[in-house]
Specification:
Layout: H1 2-9, H2 13-22, E1 31-33, E2 43-45, H3 47-53, H4 58-66, H5 81-87, H6 91-99, H7 115-121, H8 125-133, H9 148-154, H10 158-166
Antiparallel strand pairs: 1-2
Helix pairs in contact: 1-2, 2-4, 5-6, 7-8, 7-9, 9-10
Length: 175
């Protein structure tokens, strides 16, 4: 697995393909992160999420999916590849996830945190644009009834508030 992770880090697509064709790597094996900091409890993630957070190229992500990695998988908290791509400002991966059928209007998170809300929390107007272009409901709410406008207000993000308002967003909780 370590050899594949290094190939992903260096965007060595030829080496990735060779290792994946070999079939000896378990792509469902958890990737441990944080060991280099000698943490008492390093975190574990799947290879797809690890690749997104490490800045892997879209081609590397496509290769992983081609060899069986499930683009629609979620972790134990309901976080999916679309959420990770938004968090790490990977517009190319967001577009890819949507092309592959991940619904940007839904979530498996218990909190109901939707992609539009996440992009709003991260003050990422470009990401909000991509989501809107793909049919996302700008006034969708999470499990507590909060909209993107509510999160922007709660977090004191004046520019995001102005931007969302210009796109027709409304408050749900705050008035």
């Amino acid at each position: 697995m370590q050899e594949l992770l290094e190939a992903i880090k260096h965007d060595s697509l030829v080496k990735m393909r060779k290792l994946l064709e070999n079939g000896k790597i378990d792509l469902n094996q958890e990737v441990i992160i944080g060991e280099e900091y000698e943490l008492d409890e390093p975190d574990e993630t799947n290879i797809l999420f690890w690749s997104i957070r490490e800045g892997a190229s879209l081609e590397a992500i496509e290769l992983l999916v081609e060899y069986g990695v499930d683009i629609a998988q979620t972790d134990r908290d309901g976080i999916c590849a679309l959420d990770m791509a938004i968090k790490f400002k990977r517009e190319d991966i967001v577009e890819y996830c949507i092309e592959k059928g991940i619904d940007p209007n839904s979530t498996k998170r218990k909190s109901g945190m939707l992609p539009i809300l996440l992009a709003s929390c991260f003050r990422d107007t470009s990401m909000v644009d991509i989501l809107l272009k793909n049919g996302v409901d700008i006034n969708a709410t999470d499990g507590r009834g909060m909209s993107a406008m509510d999160y922007a207000k709660k977090l004191g993000q004046k520019k995001m508030l102005e931007y969302l308002e210009s796109k027709g967003a409304k408050h749900s909780v705050y008035k």
